Amino acid sequence: MAALTSQLFPVQTVDLPGGAEPIVPGGRHLFPLLPAALDGVRKIGVLGWGPQGRAQALNLRDSLQGSGIQVAVGLRAGSASADAARSEGFRTEDGTLGDWLAVAASSDLVIALVSDAALAAHHQELFAALRPGTTLGLSHGFLVGHLSQTGGDFPAGISVVAVCPKGMGDSVRRLYLQGAHINGAGINSSVAVHRDHDGRAVERALAWSIGLGSPYTFGTTLDSEYRSDIVGERAVLLGAVHGLVESLYQRFRLAGDDPQTAYERSCENVTGPIARTISADGPAAVRDRLDPAGQDVFDRAYAATYQPAFDVIAEIYDEVDSGNELRSVVLAAQRLASRPMAPISGSPMWAAGPAVRARRAERDLAVEPFTAGAFLAVLTAQVDLLAERGHPWSEVINESVIEAVDSLLPYMHARDVAYMVDNCSVTARLGARKWGPRFQAACEQLAFPAFDGPGDPDHRLVDAFRKNPMHEALATLAPLRPPVDISV
User: Fold this and answer.
1) Is position 229 annotated in a ligand binding site?
2) What confidence tens digit (pLDDT) does each residue in 70-105 have?
3) Residue 6 placed within a domain
4) Whether 45 contacts 103, CB under 8 Å
């Protein structure tokens, strides 16, 4: 479902390179409409208490206060999160905290926010607990991909919808709270209706999104969402950043830089001045603000990196599309209890991070042209690949640009890339650890030698970057972002 229609909420259209797309603006003034949109829903069960589970349960409870619609949290027996949920006011005594399957069985809208691997392993138990007429909600399409690859399906007699916030769970909660005082604060979401059993699924999905505080809601499908999301976290959102900055750091060290300078020219540059420039003024501004010598370096780095990056991202997409990447997550999750993942933060470059962060106040870093050209080649390659594979432009831009420069890169700037990789979801962590080294190898074995070789850059690639439709799409979508920085 890329198109959105509603009898209750306002629908607008935005003109994007692929054509007009409908969007639904949110806002607290719409909260009184939520009970009507959730017609037939007396209880919402949120399964899981990770960052998204906590944020969504709290936001929905606050938005529906006084409506008579109960929000309950469902956890597996013995969950270490039970005390945290109790501290936020969820209680077994009033039915707002309980066993995950019992909560699912008693709820009309069940929002499954447990990990991808856990949902893949235990979805049959969940399906058996759902009553006919229930609406099952997801915030990620992983389960849809898993079912399609294993020959499974959702049970008959239920609706299946998704609301997918374009930011981390902590930000979903913090910006919601800011929205009480700053109009438009919140995290934008995409929404999908995979199955509409009773004709009410669209309104319920939109009510869920608006209740989370989404300033704008975009349409997609669950098939499209899980592909773009899993590809994105393995590429420009996480995995590619990891591989790129590792390779850049090593290059600058070999050229004679001390560890702190090499870190500033690589990781600090991507997460700092490059990300800030893209966020404020768009990707083209990164190149345009360089002097002629810097533009020449940018062009050479961009032209050398674009095709190797595109080839790796295309391979990732094919692995996701075939189901291989999803199966690898499920298989890895089965062995993590006995063989946990080692952190990536042992690499030499990450030891330089604390010293660099400590001296930020005394330094105003300029954009490093080589780093900028290589990073924007990766970003543009992902944009081009997703657009080529038919994803809606709102999804392409949100997954490839806005989420990167407004959410993940600022978080990495505050803590570093290694911290992000070592502390993200299992699905994302596995993907970043698997594909980050592939991007590092592509840079060190293909892109950097091409940059150092003879001849001029392929100006057709640079011209394609300057004329890329993403600039037009981002100019349309950027004003729809929240008016506050996403908290990190």
Assistant:
1) yes
2) 999 999 999 999 999 999 999 999 999 999 999 999
3) no
4) yes
